[in-house]
Amino acid sequence: MAECEVCGNDYEMSFEVHAAGAVHTFDSIECAAQRMAPICDNCQCRILGHGLQADGAFFCCAHCARLQGKAQLVDHG
Fold first, then answer.
1. What is the C-alpha to C-alpha distance for residues 57 and 9, in angstroms, rounded to an integer?
2. Could you list the pLDDT tens digit for every one of the 77 residues in the chain?
3. Up-side HSE of residue 69: CA atoms within 13 Å toward CB?
4. 26 with 54, same domain?
5. Residues 32 and 46 in one domain
6. Distance CA 21, CA 10 (A)
């Protein structure tokens, strides 16, 4: 068993995520998303899909990007 780094649950079905040279241990997708998913710089929601990025800022959609002055960004089609 391994302990989730977000909630501390010691769970027999925990899993590891390897990203950017680090190893993270979670007990659920929910905890993994809380730790690893970027946050929209406009509405502060977790970005679980593709999202958009400009000048180091993350956005969940083109609407949020436009509200922050990034009119060149468009949603993926």
1. 32
2. 899 999 999 999 999 999 999 999 999 999 999 999 999 999 999 999 989 999 999 999 999 999 999 988 888 76
3. 2
4. no
5. no
6. 23
